Every structure is written in structure tokens, then in C-alpha cells.
Amino acid sequence: MSKDPKPGHTAKDTHYANLRRAVRDQKRERGDLPAAPPGAAKAKAPWKGPQLPTDTVWLYGVHTVKAAIDNPERKLLKLRVTRNALARLELNDAQMLAMTIEMVAPQDIDKLVGPDAIHQGVLLEARPLPVRKLDSLKDRPLLLVLDQVTDPHNVGAIMRSAVAFDAGAVITTERHSPTESGVMAKSASGALEMIPYVQITNLADAIDELKTLGFQTIGLDSEGPAPLEGTFTSGKVALVLGAEGKGLRQKTRATCDALARLDMPGAIKSLNVSNAAAISLYAARAHLSK
Hints:
alpha/beta, six-stranded parallel beta sheet, globular, 16% strand
């Protein structure tokens, strides 16, 4: 028997509300939505997942995992997957044989990656990608350098822009920067597998090394002396962006060849770092294509 409509609601309103709830429940069951309604987990203690070995990463989400499986440089270990998600991955026989495959329910993955992860019924256990050195990037004319950008969502979004504008690598520090993770890979939507993510020990030393490799290093600064589009002088460019709020550290500013700003004529004078990266990459690519 259906419940009586709430005061002010018709039977039709109640019917459509039930349909919407059923659709949400189906999506949650497939792993396309967080396992619990937003806010439900906030009253509980913060969720803590199992501790992974340093030589292991977990990647989740259909697009992210498919990109990892398609990447010949990614060492695959184990795929936990629902039957529906396995069909969506469209793996060939060689890919199926390249790793252990375990059929699971969405709730089994929830227990590993947490109730808020939108895993879509698939979790890949793999090795981190091979470490790259800066001198391996000398033939790529456009690089992106991040100065303590700590949010993995931002770094993932920046990777997507970097791939879109054919940058040669995203370079960041080992400390105060996210390592490879499911959160970053999901935000990158496959881009983690398409561009080197190079983590170095000392950013100032890395910028100096890029200079010796022929790159003009340009730091993005809201108080930069000139607009970015008028700052380019080289056929090889490394753009350096700092964290939101803090911006570039003083040592980083002093090490760059030049500082430049993004002119914004509107009322808002600052952008999310991932948006600033996309605009900067567009300007750099326009310069390099001349």
C-alpha cells in the first residue's frame, strides 16, 4: 500500500518522488553514486581505508580503469569488478589474462575505497607508473610545473587540461603534493595514463635544470609585471603555477625566468588553479604554434 501524500503534495508528486528515489537507489547499487546519501557519513568518524603498500595504487571508475588497462606502461595486478562493470570495460582476451579478476558486489568495493567514492563497480590494483627524469622531457616544448598544489582533485583536473593542450609532463614536488591515487586518477578521467607525472625533490633545482634544457620558465603571479601572452620569448616553455591562496613561494618566484599575470577585466580577479592552468596552457600553445 502506498503512503498517503504529505500535506501540500498530490498523489502524483509522491509517485514521481518514489521513482526518483528508485533511480538513485539503482545508481547507488551500481556504484555510480556514493554508497550513502550526502551528509550521512558526516555524523560518523572519518572513514579510513586499508593501508596500501608504497608500490601499489588503487584506481577506480570505468573510464579511469580502462585507460590504465590500455596503458602498456601500467603494471596490472588485480581487478575487482561487478558483472555490469566488466561488460562496460570491453576487455579483450589479452587484457583479461594480464591480471587476476575477481567478481564482486558494489558493496565489496565500498568497503575498500569508502562510501563516498564513485567507483562504478570497478577497482584496479596496480603498480605506480615508472619514474621519469627531467632530461627525458627535453624534446617536449610545453611543460607544466606545480608549486605545492596539494588537492588531488585540482591536480587531476590540471592533468586533463595538460593532455588536452599536449603538454609534455606535469612536474611537482614529492612533498606537499599528491601521489598517484584513486581520487587523483578519477579527477583526471584517464589523463594520468596519458602524461608523465614527475615528482622531484627540490623545485628550485628542477626549474634551474629546465633552464639548462632550454625552457623559458614563467611563473604565474597575479602581480606579474606583464600579461602572460606578451611574456613568451622561447620555443620551449615551462609554466609554473602555485597553490590557491598562497601562490608561488618566494624561492620559486626568484628562480623563474619571468613572472606573468593573467589579465581578468571582470569583477573577479582570481581563478581556481586548474582553470588558471587551462588558460595558461592555451596561451602557451598559441605562442608555440606561431
